[in-house]
Amino acid sequence: MAAARVGLDIGGTKTAAALVAVDGQVLGRRLAPTPAGSGPAAVLDTAARLARELLDPGGAVAVGVGTAGTLDPATGTVRYATDSLPGWAGTAVGDELAERLARPVRVTNDVNAAALGESWVGAARDRRDLLLVAAGTGLGGALLQHGRISTGARGGAGEVGHLPAPGAERLRCGCGRYGHLEGIASGTGLSAAYALVTGVRIAGRAVAERAAAGEPSARAVVDRAATALGRVLAGLVALLDPQAVVLAGGAGDALFPGARAAFADELPAAWADVPLLPAALGADAVVVGAARLAAHGPPAGSDTAVATDERTRA
Fold first, then answer.
1. For the domain 126-278, what is the CATH code?
2. How far apart are CA 38 and CA 35, in angstroms?
3. Which helix (H) or strand (E) holds 262?
4. pTM score, whole prediction
5. How many Å from the N-terminal Cα to the C-terminal Cα in the chain?
6. What are the tens digits of pLDDT across the range 67-96?
7. pLDDT top residue among 295 and 94
8. Which architecture does CATH list for 5-115+282-312?
9. b/e per residue, 111-141, with b = 16+ CB within 10 A?
């Protein structure tokens, strides 16, 4: 038990914590609503409380965090966050939690943490070069290269949602511009595209349900989104040369069959063996990956690239 690590997932609506064994098994979980409207201090207090409920009081065990927002790779401070977490930008998440918990804290973006989890004990187990795309309300991405999170210069490497995508010209991305992949291949994108076709605005999840039930308009919206996503991912394989691509997120479940077909059709022959895989860890992906980060990553305030090879364990 002493070797287990705690992983935290801080999101706009919920905060989750898990105690994770050295083999990736989740030994315990805690969950609470994120008090986003009360400011960053309340969010951090909630995360720290959940972590304390799982930590061994006598052990100096590190904590890993996957958080919404883009983090500065040099400092671990949030550079950018959406309105789902008001005031989150500028928050030194790792340093603040380390002070509250009196333990080392390692922090990364939540999609990066999910990629670590999926490459450790999930769909892409033991693959060290991985692209993970999370299609939920928006569209996020993470890139592992040689077993390490690739952060880029500003912490935004792997953010595939802002790539141009055919078919998205009339659909608005979360960044405010039109024509991006997030504008078509996300829950928000499915909702907007369905409204353009039918004049009726429903949630992306409802569009997916109607498509599964055979409604022609919903089916056409999902098919177009899945095709756009699969084609873009195939192009990224040629650019990034990963061993696998993993598709996660609630909207990802609906998009996966069509995206896999388009991906296979578009994939250049030299990369024909690169699979597009459905994520396997579900809601545990971020906490499991964050626990992996705790065991293998540098502390908050240093370079957040994280080795996932067992040989790098401190």
1. 3.30.420.40
2. 6
3. helix 250-266
4. 0.91
5. 18
6. 999 999 888 899 999 888 999 999 999 999
7. 94
8. 2-Layer Sandwich (3.30)
9. bbbbbbbbbbbbbbeebbbbbbbbbbbbbbb
